[in-house]
Structures are given as C-alpha cells and as structure tokens.
Amino acid sequence: MTADAFLFWFLAFITVMGASLVILMKNPVYSALSLVFTMCGVAALFVTLDAFFIAGVQIIVYAGAVMVLFVMVLMLFDLKHEVEAFSKGRVSGAVKIVTAGLLAGLVAGAILYSTTTSSPTLAKEMVTASEDPSKQLGMRLFTQHIFAFEALGILLLVIAVGAVALARSKGGTHHGQR
Amino acid sequence: MGKDTLEIAINGIKLILIFLMMVQAVPILVWLERRGSAFIQNRFGPNRVGPLGLVQLLADAVKFITKEDFAPDKAVRSLFYAAPVFALIPATLAYAAIPMSTPIAVAAFEAFGSTWGPYLFRVQGYEIGVGVVFILGVSSLAAYTILMAGWGSGSKFSLLGALRASAQVISYELALGLSIVGVIMMYGTFNLTEMVQLQEGPLSFTAFGYTVASTVDWIPNWGIFYQPIGFILFFSAAFAESNRLPFDLAEGEAELVAGFHTEYGGFKMLMFFIGEYGHMMIAAGLATTFFFGGYGIPGITVAELQAAIVGWGFSEQGASYMSALIHFLSYNVKFGLFLWIFIHVRWTLPRFRYDQLMDLGWKTMLPWALANTIVTAVVIYVATA
Amino acid sequence: MTSAASSMPIGGIIFLTIFIAIFGTFLIFLARAIGGQRKDNSQAKRDIYECGIPEEVKKETKVSIKFYLTAILFILFDIEIIFMYPWAISFREFIATGMGTPVLISMAVFIGIFIYGLWWEVKSRALEWD
Q: How far apart are the CA of A68 and the nearest CA of chain B, in angstroms?
C-alpha cells in the first residue's frame, strides 16, 4: 500500500469513526464533540485532494463556528427531556428502522453513483491545474459564480434578520421582558 | 513528511522540538511577566530562588507536579481531563506553521553505502500553502477547550465563565479575520513564507506606473507601512483572542471566580497556562510575519547576507546554517518584543466591562476593519489599474 | 502530481496532534503519580467551588439569549469574511487581467450588504449588552 492510500484509509477510518460516534453517543454533548472531530477529519480529506483552501474553510466555518454554537447550546441546556424523547419507547422502533434504512440506501446510492458515473474530464482539469488552487477558486468564484455569490450575501442578511427577530419574539419562558 | 527515512525522522524531531520550545518558553515568559510587572509596579517580584529569581520557574514546576490531582464529584471526568490536554493542540499546531528562519540547505552526502539528499529543511514545523487560513482555522478550535473545561467541571462558575469567554473569543475572531484581508490583498498570497520574502529589501512600491523607492535603504519594505490600521486591529483582536488583559473577561474574582478553570489546579492548570501563552506566541509570531518582515533583517536581504557570510570564509553549506541562525535570532528579537508588549499592556491598562468589550468588538473594530479593507482595495485598484 | 504524503504537511499535522495528545496524557498521569493521593478525602474537598457555602448546583441555568444571538451572528459574518479571502488573494490578478472594475463592483455590493446587515443589527439593538 502506498503512503497516499494509507493516508486516505487512515483519515477515512477516523472520519467515519467520528461520524458513527455522533449517533452512538448517548449524551448530546459528546455527539457534538464527535461531530467536530468528524469535521476536522473531512478537512484533512480535503487536503489529500489538494483542496487546501476548502479544507481551511471547512475548519473555520464548520468546526470553528457552527459547531461552537451547537456545543455552546447543548452545554447550557441540560437536555434531559430531549434525551428521554429519543431513548427507548418514545420513538417507535419502526421510525428508527425506516431512518436507518434511508441512511443505508443513501450511502449505497452515493457509492454506486460515484463508481458508475465518474467524470474523468473534470478530474483531469483539476489535476493539471498548475496555478495556486486558492487563486483559481477566487477567479472562478468571481467570474462564473458571481450571481450565486451576491445571492449568498442577501441570504446571509436574511438569516441575520431572522435570527434577531426570533430572539426578540415574545413568548417562551421570559414573560414580562421587552 | 519527507522523501526518505532521514528526512522524515528529522522533520518529526523538528516538530517535537518546536512543541518543546513553546512549552519551554512559557516558564521564561512567566518569569519575565512577574519580574516585569514587579518593575512596573515598583516591587521586587520573585528574586530569592537563584540569580534574579530565575530558578523560580523550576521551583514552580516542581510545586505544580507535586500537587495532588483530583476531580470534583460533580465533574464530567473524561472532559475534565481532556480539556487541558486539548488546550495544547490548537496552539502548537498553529505555531508550527509560522516560518522562523531561512531554510537550511543540506547538500547530498554519502553515508551507509547510499547517497542521501540533497535536503531542504525549513525552520518551521510544516510549510502550508494556505498558512493564514490554516492558522485562523486551527486557533478557532481553542473555543472547545474553554467549553469542555467549563462544562466538564460541573460548576456553574466554570460554565458561565466558559460561556463568556467563548462569546468573547468568537466575537473578536471576526475583527481578527477581517483585519488581515487587507494584508492578503496586498501580498496576494496565503503563504507565510512568501509574505516574508515579499517584505525583503528597502521600501519600494509601484503606483500609477511609477516605482517609488525610499532613498534610505535601511527602511525596510514591511507591511506595517502599508497596513497600519490593519496592524492595530489585528494586534488588539489578538489580545482578546488570547484572553489577556485588558480583555480577560473570562475571569472575574467578584462574579466568576477564575472563569472556566475555577476547578482546576496543579499541572492541569499549568497546561491551560501553556495554551494561553501559546496563543500569545501565535499572535506575536503572526504580527511579526504579516507586518514586520518575519525573520528578515532591515537593510540586508537574505541573499546579501549569505554572500557576506561566504565572504567571511564559510562554505556554501556553512553559510546556509549561519544564515538560518542569524535570521532565527532576528525573528526572535521581533517576536520577543511583541511578547513584551503583551506583558506590558497587561500591567498598564485597566480591564473593560463586558458590554464595553462587546461594543468594541462589534461596533468599533469590525467597522474599522471593513473600512480598512475597502480603502486598501480602492487604493490598490487606483494605483495599479 | 506529487505524492500527497510526502509533499504535504498533513502527515506532520497528524503526527504533531498525536504526539501532543500522548505527551499531554503522559503529563497528567505523571502529575497524578508524583502528586499522589492525600489521606483527606472529605466531602468538602470533593465539592465544587461555591464561595464557602454548601454547594448548590442547578445545571439548567437560564442564560441570556444574547449569547446565542452573538454566536449566530458570528457564524453569518464569519462566512461573509471567509468569502472575502479568495477575492483578496486574486484581486491583483483580476486587475492585471483587466477584470478589476467588475470584480471591485461585485465585492462593493457584497460589502454593502455586509455593512447594511451590521448597521441593521446595531440599530435593532441586537448587539446591545445591558
């Protein structure tokens, strides 16, 4: 086995391990921390594909920002009721089986799709790129995908407004406050 | 990590050395901080153990390691013990990506019946093409240390301290990330080594088709002359990122006791300390690299220095070693100066109130960083187009 | 195409991570071994810190919504800043290839939305800590 293959299988193993721990852990805090670990593993896998910038973004945005919020929320609420809701009895076995079946089907489908419909032209283009990949990403983003980029700005603005509106809405346990 | 066994081994040892160097720097910094604060406050500071109190560090380490190790009943033991170990990881990973000197070139040589090399060993843990993004990403993982320690302790003071600290750290990450957009725009690269190389030589830049060069050749081509506001924003945000005074709102004797490490003591506490000082070192190293020419020496370029060393009678090989050594010293002078500024500021400024802290981060530094980005973009556009 | 394991720092990063994890765990065990266990193991010692009064822990502390709001707004602005990075790195290239003006304008629009968002947050007092 070459060093590259070993690296890939090692990273793939620990990433999948982390992902399994997310669903196997009983305590949601541990699940969230496993998810952070999985994100870092995915970032490392991006590095083996030469996508350095994407790997960095994966860590900054997912591991460093989104998951911080998740972990923060999970640690502050002791989610006893929610843990009970997902343990034995409350959610029927049928739902679990259907969900597991859907997931298995999704994974199998993804593997099947990736083996049957590979796109050699795209892969070749990426491999022969001699320029700095981060610069290429910038060039692509601001020429071909400029509309998506601007739309993203609007989308983020809408999310920010929505978050503030939700946080200020009356109701919940904090009656009497502004 | 390398082409053959020797290179892999040397690179591995190099990484361990960088880690140990960081760990070793902490007691020295603590000594410097205690003596320095004593000097600022007209006290003596530690002066009994050894000359100038230097052996105090050793005594402290012995004290820390002989403390009884225990966890409170309410603590979640796995996270309680994992948090101090994890505190070391992001700081070291990020610091190892900062270039500290010129690479050492080793010519091919014969040994054990085969030819080894030629090698090029960098005086940094690993060179990363997207160094800036990597360091930002890895150091943003430090928030988990705080959260793990705060929640794992099972104490409400720890939890509230962790909440405050993480909210502060993430708020200032915005200003930190935005303040270096101008730097990236200026150099056009994420690679820290390339940034250092671009800052070599005397001050000169091209604007409106003319090349403006300084007549005095010892004024270096450093980033601080192009990004002064970026530097101020970056350095202030770095204070908040490393939870140092005047931004040490994670602790508060009156309301939070010691913040997220209330329940920690002995060696585990020391490991948090190493993490905190590690973040200081990252900030100092990055400020040196972005704005003060990294390992470069003002008035002389790397090539000129190497030629001069060869002129003193060294071989090419020896010149490479000497140049690496001299530039390493140059880097450490700047690096040490920034660390001293960290210490000096801690003992001269009062701390903020929490609302002032958040206001400063969101309403002052973020708009200024945005303005800096816009002005930089417009100036580059007007000057080069 | 060079080999990933040899040219990339990923091996070094993984090595350093594992090394620090082992080293840190070793230090904790070392401190545990040298520090030993004292005879005194009373309840008062094993309690968490509570200013000298009997411990009273409620984990379900009600926490101000501001912290969550700050975290959510942080994520949003962080993503916007991350999108400026590829722009910043290739800005000089865009100018060199004569694409400077449209790219500058598109970024100005993006930053304009950013500033509007920030202004709105400030105006709606979402960033106010009292």
A: 7
Shortest CA distance to B140 belongs to which of A132, C74, C37? C74
Is some CB atom of chain A closer than 8 A to the CB atom of C68? yes
Q: Which of C57, C61, C90, C118 to mutate to test the interface with A (most CBs of A within 10 A)?
A: C90
Say if CB B293 and CB B199 are below 8 A apart: yes
Taking CA atoms, B77 is separated from A23, B275, B331, in Å, by 21, 20, 41
Helix (H, G, I), strand (E, B), or coil: what is residue B136?
helix
User: Measured between beta carbons, which residues in chain B are less than 8 angstroms from residue C47?
Assistant: 72-74
Which of the residue ranges B190-199, B336-345, C93-102 would you say has the lowest mean pLDDT? Answer: C93-102
ipTM: 0.84
Q: Is A126 touching C (CB cutoff 8 A)?
A: no
CB contact under 8 A, C94 and A142: yes
CA distance B190 to B180: 10
Main-chain phi, psi angles of B204, to 5 degrees: -160, 140
* DSSP state letter for B315: -
pTM (two decimals): 0.86
Residue B122's contacts (CB-CB under 8 Å, 6 or more residues apart) are B99, B103, B104, B193
Is 60 exceeded by the pLDDT of residue B8? yes
CB contact under 8 A, C5 and A168: no
pLDDT of residue A7: 84
Checking if the pLDDT of A88 tops 70, the result is no
